[in-house]
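User: Second chain of the day. Same drill as before.
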Amino acid sequence: MDRKIIYPGQIPMVEDQLQAARFTQISVGRLAGALYDESGTGASGLACTPGSGLSVTISPGQITQPGTIDATAFGVLPASASALPRQYILADPVNIAIPGAGATYVVYGTPGTTDTANAVLPYYNSANPAQTFAGTSNSGQTQPTVRTDAVTIGIAASVPGGSIPLWSIVVPSGATAITSAMISAASGAPLYPSLRRLAMRIVAPFNAALAAAFGGYPSKTIVADPTTTGLFWVSTADNNLITPGESGASWVNLFAGLATETYAAQFNPGRYLNTTVITSSQTYTVPAGVYKIRVRLQAAGGAAGGSADNTGGNGSSCASSGGAGAYVEAIFPVTPGQQIPISIGVGGVGVTGKAGGTGGATTFGPFGSFAALSCPGGLGGYAGTQTSSSAASSIPGCPGNGPPSGPNIVYAVAAAGGLPGVAVLGTAAAPPGSNSPMGAGGAGITGYNGSTSQPGGNAGGWGGGGGAHANQQAA
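Assistant: Same format as last time:
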C-alpha cells in the first residue's frame, strides 16, 4: 500500500491529508478484493433476527462490491475512475417493519456513497488575516466534511435495481409475529461466513480446546479423528463439545452407510482374498483365483507456497497451503494373470519464494476394454508477499484441481483447494495443508525475521497438501 510522506518543517497541504485517506481506502479495497475476488460481491454480518411483532432486526455488517476509487472529486482531489472493490457499512442495527401478513418479502441492502456531516467551516481571509471567514468567501454556507460508504436496508416484494438481496421473509396469512422459521437467505444473496465460522468447518482433527473456545462444533461439521488416520466424523448436533467415539457422542462416521445394497450388489458372491498396498509406479499382475477387484486411488498433494524474505524483521509474509489430491474407488472384473499399469503421483515440492509444486496424478490402467481410472493431484499453494508491520494482507488458497475420472466409479472425492495465508500487523499465520481421505495435510511452518525467502512445506501424508510457510516479525 502507499503512504504519504511529510517532512519536518514542511507545511502540510490539504491534498496531503486527503491523499492519505485515499491511500487507506485503496488498501482496504485491495484486501477486500483478495477475500471476495476483485469482481465479486460479498456480504458479511447483516444477520436477520425476529423483532417485535411483524418486524425484523438487521445487525451491523458490510457489503463489498466492485466500484471505482472516487466517482466524484474528493475535496480538492479529482475523481478517480480506477477500479476498486468498495466496502459499504451498516454501523448500527436496523429494525425493519414487515408490510403485512400473507406474502413473501425480500430484505435488501442498497450500497451508496454520500458526502455528509455538513458544517459551516472557518476560512482564512488573506486580505485581512485578523478576520476569519464563516464559509467560503464569508458566505455562511455549509459544506460536507465526511464521505460515507454506507448500506441502506429496505424491504419489498422484489429487489430494486442496484440493491443486493439478503433475506427472504415468508409471512403466513394471519401471522402477528415473525419467527426464525420464516427467515431464510434470499435467492442470490452473497452472504459469506466470517473467517471464524469458516475455520470451524475446515476438515481438521477434533480439538477440544478449540471447541470450548467457540461454544462447540455446529451440526454437519466434519472433523478428522484425533488419533486414527483416515477416520472422519460428522457432527449431528449444534454446540457439540464431546470427543468423537465417546459413549453418547453426537458424531457419526463420515463413511457410515456407504456399503448400501446398490454398492454391495456390484460384488459377486465370493470370499475376500487379500489387500495389496502399492506406493510406487509399476505393473500389477492379477493373482490366481481373483476375478473382481476394488481399486482405491489417492493422488498426491500439492506443496505449499514459499514465503517472501523479511530482511531486518520489519514485516511479515505468509503463503497459502497446498491442495489435497483427489480420491476414487472403483470396481472392475478381471482375469488372473491380467497385467494393469499403475502410475503413482509424486507429492508436490516446495519452492523458495514461489508457488508450490502440483502433486502428481495417480492412474490405474488402461487395461482390457477399460479406459484409465485417474485422480488429479492437488495444486500448489500461492507464494507469499512481504507485508509491512503496519499493514494486513492475505494470500488466497489455491483452487481444487477437479474430480477423478474413468469407468466404474462408486465413490469419488475431488482434489481439494488449499487454505489462505494471512499476515496482519507483523504477525503471520501459516495454514496447514488440506487433508485428503487417506492422509492429513502437512503442518504450517512459522519462521521469524528470515533474511531470505523460504520454501513452502512439501505435500503431507498420503494425498494431503503441504503446510504453508510464514516468515514473521519476531515478538
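Residues 377 and 395 are 21 Å apart (CA to CA).

User: Great, on to the next one.
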